Amino acid sequence: MINFCYIRKNFNFYSEKYMFHIADPRDIKDGKMADVYFVRTMEVLKAKKIDKWVKAELIAKRFPEDYGWGVLSGIEEVAYLLENLKVTVRAMEEGTIFRTYEPVMEIEGMYTDFGLFETSILGLLCQASGVATKAARCKKAAGERRVISFGARRIHPAIAPMVERSAFIGGCDGVSGVKNAELIGEEPSGTMPHALILMIGDTVEATKAFDEVIHPKIKRVSLIDTFNDEKIEALRVAEALGKKLFGVRLDTPSSRRGDLQKIIEEIRWELNLRGYGHVQIFISGGLDENRILSLNPVVDAYGVGTAITNARGIDFAMDIVEIDGKPIAKRGKMGGSKSVFRCPKCFQDKMVPFRKGSTRAVKGSDRCSCGGRIKELLLPFIQNHKVRWRLPKPQKIREYVLKQLPQFDL
Length: 410
Hints:
16 helices, elongated
């Protein structure tokens, strides 16, 4: 076994440059990941002995590609960052589907107690929410068909657990990364790679080897586009495994794809014709919500990678809206603390000035015009160094997202 401590101590060629380029969690908690202008702001305020009680909110003015909504993710990590600071926080629950200009979080306290953390707070929410939003869009497009996150290879492994957690809570039915699945309390999902078939030399023999070795609880899904025509390979593996074959997967390179839908239609026809109607057809490679919609008539499940894991972040901004109890905001922002009310019956939202302890969007009324009882989305989250909620497991957050999703259009 290599003694890396010995190498580090005794050999000049060992350098910090060979380490993973990731932040130490302690540096994040200590505010060392801040943009430099926040550091300089703190220096100025300290030198001038200026500090004020402020409220700052986080909103998104627009969504990527003109989406009409986003899925909030990253709340749990923000809680870990803020819980020991001298702040009071109101926030939407993780998994809430929100619209533009609606505050998803409000932080209250002396500015110098939390201003240095703006960069990290935004980073935690922007990327996670972008991934969750794209996953939700893919799941909405797929309907009852399964969507699996296949994108762990498209991102830095240090953040893969966060990304696949966000993909799962956004609606994905499973994730492919072993550790990522373990951290959310799920079994990892996947089939077999081209490498296995190339190493064994034949699709059928590789599928039979998989069947002989891998635990029976794992569904048998054969990858059928390594060597030969997909239709022929699908029939060969179906004949070899019979009822044990759960599905076949196509991951054909774009240079060989042709009309993918026609290829799948042929496969489905030939399988059905020969009594293999139980065999499902899975597709992966270059998918997003639009491609999923077009393939739904012929596909049973999807593996989505790059579109979800490299999804554009939600461009949240964090801005002061109140100082020493008085509304104030920069141009283009609406000053003052706010409430966001939603009717769970018709899913209409209304944003109004915040009144402490109020559950009414309009004075004297807690009912929507449709008759539904309105609900405040911004809830007390952190007070006196403690998180007020019992943070739900990813499965519960995912259920919450899927419950809301029918009310929002692609």
